Amino acid sequence: MLYFYIGEKFTTAALIISSLLCFSNKAQAITFTGTSSGSWGLPSNPSSSTFLSNENGGIKNRLSWGVPVLNSFNNYVQYDGLDFNTDLNNPFVVGNLSYRNGRTTDFFNGDFPLTVVLSLSNPLGNTQAFSFSFNILNTDNNTGDPVLDGDKLRLSANGLSNQALRFNDTNYTLQLIGFSSDGGISITSEFNAAEETISRASLYARITRLPHPTPVPEPITVAGLFVIGLYMATRWNLYISKSELAVLQAQHITGRQQLHGVGIQVGLDYDGYRNP
Fold this sequence. Notes:
alpha+beta
């Protein structure tokens, strides 16, 4: 441990470094606030009964299909947007889904798209659309159990989007995580809609930071913080053991080279302390 003397009290260089790290982490904290909306697209191979409609103030937010058999109804999946307030990488509800599963004929095949639009008010006023892909797993209605005979709405391509939102020279994207019907206690990759019912679930997502296309040095790295703390410590009387000095010389040679590069000299001698 590095100790430096101020008046009659001892403290540590690690305290300085920890404070700087805390400041750096707080500077990188970011919260996203806004409203979501969503629009479905037609599947790659739609049936003659497949169509889109506007519901509850949305635009093309319901996808319907199927010709119902006697005493049943057709199918639909509906997306309803909502307000959100979330930190980076935290799961949050980006929309609510309704899935009506009737006994029908005339299914469609293939994936179908969902475009989720985030209308942000914080940390910037901006609107960004993100595209995703879904599919339906149709089951044979031969068990008599509405759950086992239920169809499933599933995410395609791991819920990843190719679109990005740019803020402060950094790209962010929206990733869909899965579905939950219990307030997020459990999040699954499939939304099971029991036969002859309307099932509801929340669609969970998170906003993540995309890596820079080329390596960009951080303004304050851990090594840089160590160098700053070490330099500040040497402004007072620094006491350090020989073994600790050897560790510093072995592990922090890069930091010492950085100090030398900016013209700062750290005067540690081999007796284990800094000469006044």
